[in-house]
Amino acid sequence: MADVKKIAVIAGDGIGPEVVAEAIKVMNKTEELFGYKFSFEQGLFGGIAIDEKGTPLPQDTLDMCKRADAVLLGAVGGPKWDNNPKELRPETGLLGIRKALGLFSNIRPATIFDCLKEASTLKPEVLEGTDLIVVRELTGGIYFGEKFRREGENGQEAVDTCVYNVAEVERIVRQAFEIAQKRRKFLTSVDKANVLETSRLWREVVNRIAPEYPDVELEHVLVDNCAMQLLRRPSSFDVIVTENMFGDILSDEAAMLTGSIGMLSSASLGEGAFGLYEPVHGSAPDIAGRGIANPIATILSVALMFRLTFGYEDAAKSIEDAVAEVLNAGHRTGDIAVDKSKAIGTQAMGELIVAAMRK
Ligand code: IPM
Ligand code: MG
């Protein structure tokens, strides 16, 4: 019998519970088709945890994640908590869980589904062949540096510090090289080495490590230029590796190439196989509870989990093929529909994908 993989499920806020429910149906179908076995444990996180437990990241949720083989996360946040002090904000929980679980690497693929090209704001001929991955450093840099206020000569000042050490750069860059080796073997390292000291260190480390991966072609691109090239020649990128804040910004930009943030999955990884998987989109409070959210990003996050944490390539492929089949047949949720009157709901989309899965 296959060993049972423990999945920590954090549905979170807004549309989180709705999209996670469909992803679990996909996992159940995988058990049926491939004989893999999963057990699920649910925990509170984000806004709902603030409301029920007074903290965005309760200890028992963290313990549950540590016991698990992988975490499936829906989405967190919403206007209700936006004006809370820092410790009582869902985003603080998100940064806390990344740090506590050692998830230093965030992987965000942006792949164009041919049949969805019309959903992008870019011209189809510019998008043709776009298939890239942003590998974002997730537990360092300005997000985690010292932050404080002080009285300066001209009144109050705020300080955010950006710190990277060699080991932090090395581990993420190595992972990016390894990912590139399994793809088109082209790595773009993005920094701001013409201005920032952390970027100069970043570039030094990349150049020192590069000879260990002679099969991968390397380019260095400054972040402002990269933002531009992503719109001009997106298909020329394969793997982009960059520091935390640049990666935050560029991965949103890359997401919009596909025209549909409702389609994009992500993985947050550490040293071993353990990972946290979540859709790139947020909790969409404006459409929460209406059964119209697109569950595809969460479903594709399950495919990533199967591939990256469990090595279940067959099941990952089966999910991705099922999604493509359902889209090719013309089914759309509201966010990706051209004719909104024909849009289907969250559950209907989930069920079509489950039905299209094959061994
Ligand atoms: C993301 C989000 C988070 C980030 C926010 C919500 C803290 O934008 O996952 O990209 O900046 O990392
Ligand atoms: Mg972001």
Descriptive account of the structure:
Its main location: cytoplasm. The chain is an alpha/beta fold and 359 residues long. The chain has 2 domains: 1-106 and 260-359, Isopropylmalate Dehydrogenase (3-Layer(aba) Sandwich), CATH 3.40.718.10; 121-257, Isopropylmalate Dehydrogenase (3-Layer(aba) Sandwich), CATH 3.40.718.10. It has 12 helices and 12 strands. The strands form 2 sheets. It has a 10-stranded mixed β-sheet, with helices on both faces. It has a two-stranded antiparallel sheet with strand order 6-7. The relative contact order is 0.16. Magnesium ion (MG) binds at residues 248, 252. Magnesium ion is lined by residues 248, 252.
List the helices and strands and how they pair.
Elements: E1 4-12, H1 16-34, E2 37-42, H2 47-53, H3 59-67, E3 70-75, H4 90-100, E4 105-111, H5 124-127, E5 131-137, E6 147-152, E7 155-160, H6 166-181, E8 186-191, H7 197-209, E9 217-222, H8 223-232, E10 239-242, H9 244-257, E11 265-269, E12 275-279, H10 296-310, H11 313-328, H12 346-356
Parallel strand pairs: 1-2, 1-3, 3-12, 5-10, 8-9, 8-10
Antiparallel strand pairs: 4-5, 4-11, 6-7, 11-12
Helix pairs in contact: 1-10, 1-12, 6-7, 8-9, 10-11, 11-12
